[in-house]
Specification:
The chain is mainly alpha-helical. It has helices at residues 20-23, 26-47, 49-53, 60-70, 80-88, 90-95, 100-111, 154-161, and strands at 116-119, 141-146, 171-176. A 3-stranded mixed sheet has the order 1-2-3, with no helix packed on it. It folds into 2 domains: 24-51, no CATH class; 54-176, no CATH class. Helix 8 links the parallel strand 2 (141-146) and strand 3.
Amino acid sequence: MRGIVLGLATPHPLAESLPAVYAGDDFARRWCQGLDEVLAPVLATLDCLPAYLDPATAPPDIVEWLAGWVGVTLVPGIPDTRRRQLVMAAARLYVWRGTLRGIRDIIELSTGQVPEFTESGACAWSRDPGAALPGFPDPVLIIRLQAGELSIEESHLAAIIAPFVPAHVPWLLELRG
């Protein structure tokens, strides 16, 4: 419950639903009015539940709660609109988890920047049996971003990216400028 909202009227006053024997009792009516003040925010929240569960219309603290439901990391420094977009895109993001597309999408939604990738893996063919192998011998993924345009600390950004990089691939985050 979000708390008591002063002056919030309840759509279903308890005093009006009292049996006839208590309806004329002043103490019972005042007791019910006190309960109405406490229950009004609960009823208002339940009446507006779809708005609370929609990241586009939910209050900012509820957006963080929804992010926990869908497994998205929200860190300080991300503007409110980006936070809401991250929560809304969670299902789509998890479909692409472990791929370059998923990593690119989470970085774009978090920072607004398109990252630059260098990865060690590669695939090629050759007619020559002694041709050089593509890529690098050691697996690595390097993610490059412009540091001057970031509103997020590097450690927070790494916490956002880490769940989307395959567990067996070592990776580096390089911030330029």
